[in-house]
Amino acid sequence: MTMLRSSRSTPWKRTSCSRSFGAWPPSPPMQIRLDPKKPEQLTSQLTTQFSSPDAVPSSWAISGDDPLLTTEATDLVRSFLRQQGFEERLSEATDRSFDWRGWLAEANSPSLFASRRILELRLPTGKPGTEGNKALTAWAESPAPDTAVVLLLPRADRTMMATGWFNAFSNKGLVISVPELQVSDLPSWIMARLTKAGLEAEPQAISVLATKSEGNLAAAHQEILKLVHLPRKDPNAPITAAEMQEAVTDAARFSPFQLGDAFLAGDTKRSLRMLRGLREEGEALPLLIWSVANAVRRLPIERATEALRELGRIDTMAKGLLAEDPWMALERLALSLSRSR
């Protein structure tokens, strides 16, 4: 059962009666790194780590940037908690005006509808502010019985991991990090998803879907669901590259932070496709120049010096101080780096 939170006016002060019975046992500090190729393994990890309902932690955090993988991880956590008797679920998201004192008071109040409940809290920025830091730390240090708080976070960077509230959740509960799927693992991920859906595809067909959905697993997932219902002359035959090309749309999304690595990988076609895709998405040139510069510094000194010099020229073009096209110059640099491998 999922409910929305009502308005709050309860004061910050926490009462002792909420600790008078069934206090949560201390949970061992633990972090789990989800395998994006086999997310379903999370269920067995949780079952092994928390073998009885009394061992289930009261503080959870799920951290990651990929919408599909984080959603699936959250669904697995919900399913696990339901099996432990957490029948009620309340979900909300924070903003600048979020009432942290009221949230903490509600978290410490007993449920009216179920013996155990889940309180999900989405932090879109991963920055709860001063009051949020206090509230989340207070909860992790002294949680109410029969309530599990599940934070839904973006990818945890060094700044987030250094905060008091994050360390409290990590030390007293469980943090599940959801890394992004590597580009090299995308074809095998697609193949596994196709098999799960009862489909088979030729390697070239998988390559087509991988190319058209790079950086957008949610789009690849939707395309696979669509393929299940696609009329075909021979439904039992593997999907061909031509069928895949006709069926799927181009939904690739690229990260500017991966552009530099693509330049160094020597795959000119992918580098140019990423660069043009980022341009269409309106990414700022300074960020792309920084990404490439950060990567080329790993090259041998002579090659790095030459590439950085060219990037300096491209930066000057981007500022309008040189009458040349900086996008075309970046494409030429991608070609140059590929040839010099």
Report a brief summary of the structure.
The protein is α/β, with parallel strands linked by helices. The chain has 15 helices and seven strands.
- The number of helical elements comes to 15
Quote the CATH topology of the largest domain.
Answer: Rossmann fold
The end-to-end distance, rounded to whole angstroms, is: 57 Å
CATH hierarchy class name of the largest domain: Alpha Beta
User: Helices and strands, in N-to-C order?
Assistant: EEHEHEHEHEHHEHHHHHHHHH
The helix content is 40-55%
Q: In percent terms, what proportion of residues is strand?
A: 5-15%
Number of strands: 7
Architecture per CATH nomenclature, i.e. the level-2 architecture of the largest domain:
3-Layer(aba) Sandwich
List unreliable stretches of 5+ residues: 1-29
User: Rough shape?
Assistant: globular
Helix and strand content put the structural class at alpha/beta
Explained architecture:
The protein has about 350 residues and is α/β, with parallel strands linked by helices. It has three domains: about 1-180, P-loop containing nucleotide triphosphate hydrolases (Rossmann fold), CATH 3.40.50; about 185-245, Helicase, Ruva Protein, domain 3 (Orthogonal Bundle), CATH 1.10.8.60; about 255-340. It has 15 helices and seven strands. Strands 1-4-5-6-3-7-2 form a seven-stranded parallel β-sheet, with helices on both faces. Helix 4 (about 130-140) runs parallel beside helix 6 (about 165-170), helix 11 (about 260-265) packs across helix 13 (about 285-295) and helix 12 (about 270-280) packs antiparallel against helix 15 (about 325-340). The protein is globular. The termini are far apart. Mean pLDDT is about 85; it is low at about 1-30.
